[in-house]
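ingest -> validate -> predict -> emit
validate: passed (alphabet ok, no gaps, 50 aa)
predict: started
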Amino acid sequence: MDQKSSFHQEAKLLLNTDNKTPFNDTEIDEILNLLEVFVDVFFNNISTQN
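emit:
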């Protein structure tokens, strides 16, 4: 199992724990992509302030 699929499985477990309507694989991918965008924005914001 590569790192990306391992990360996906861990995210799926975290997001679906105690969730009455679990997320499917496509929704997990979209959530992870959105989080990556936030990380990029946050990182770029920090790096331009210095």
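The mean pLDDT is 91.
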